[in-house]
Amino acid sequence: MKTSVQFLAVLLSVSTFSFGQDITKKIDSIIKDNYQKNPNVGISVGFIDNNKEYFTAYGNLDAGSPIEIDKNSIFEIASITKILTSNLIAQAALENKLKLEDYIDNYLPKAYVLHENLKNKIKISDLASHQSGLPDIDFGKLIELNPQQPVSSVTEETLTTIINTCTELKDYGKYRYSTIGYTLLGQILEKVYHKSYDQIITEKIIKPLKLTRTLTKDFNVKNRTVGHNPDGGIQEFFTWNVTAPAGLVKSDASDMITYLKAVLDKNNTIGKAALLTEKIFYKDEKREMGLGTNIMTDEKNTIYLKSGDSMGQSSIIGYNRAKNWGIIILLNQRNSKMRQNLLNEIYDTILK
């Protein structure tokens, strides 16, 4: 009997290993095929399956560089930053620094003076699930002013003016993607912790997970990819400013997989906070939203997703808690269609 049990254990181990190999070969085949069709777009992909990590990458840091992209190449993760910020908000809630259903009034910097129509109306969870109804930053105008660094002109004074002159929430309770909402969440974190957002994310996510290539203010590193706009033109990385909590963190596939491992582990602080972000805070006929997280369900699976697009890069992250897998896709060109198609193909043909 002992021999039979040992044989069964070995057989299961081999089967699991073979299954893992099969998945990664298929993922690599899809990525390679897409790269061959789009040779000007560098790709870095990380995948975790039951705590085992796999990586694949194609392309160079830049067309003129001999250095190939790998799991340690730095990309703008753009709005994937928002799930880091929402995790920090959830951590603050677990630490009783705030309550998700608290109104934002007493958590904002003193410079903000809400109009009477807005007082005791907007909850912290409303900001995090994109249903606050607040006006947002006009990116169209900002791009016209500075196509390389459009958010550079956004300051605390800019935000104060937008909020203080708002007299009505025209679509409160309805989904409308918001950069200003996550910028305010960053300022709320700064108020409850009495530290800068940079210090908070470093102390609560970057250092505990040893994310040595997840960067905030200083991202002048040798293994940084060069971003490209949809026409192929070179695009600068966004510099750090007040909008950082909404989309200015830089990272690589390896660090993002480490983050996903923590998210999928219910026994650590980040994993416990992630469970809170996965609760449904908004739902309509088109979508379900957690805190910064899109929740996609079909007949068999629940997937938690977040995409990101800067002016020169695109990315998407997703995970299935029940099946214990996660994936990160990073592109060195702004190409939201390509990154979404990559994830769709991988999911539909392999993971579903």
Automatic annotation (TrEMBL):
| Record's keyword annotation contains Cell inner membrane | no
InterPro entries this protein is in?
Answer: Beta-lactam-related, Beta-lactam/transpept-like, Beta-lactamase-like_AB/R
Using the record, list the residue span of the signal peptide; answer none if the entry has no such feature. 1-20
**Domain Beta-lactamase-related: where?**
30-338
Q: Which Pfam families does the record associate with it? A: Beta-lactamase
Query: Which terms are listed as keywords in the entry?
Result: Hydrolase, Signal
Give the matching Gene3D superfamilies: DD-peptidase/beta-lactamase superfamily (3.40.710.10)
Q: What molecular function terms (GO) are annotated for this protein?
A: hydrolase activity
Report the coiled-coil segments.
none
For this chain, the family text in UniProt reads: Belongs to the beta-lactamase family.
Q: What is this protein called?
A: Class A beta-lactamase-related serine hydrolase
- Which species expresses this protein natively? Flavobacterium circumlabens
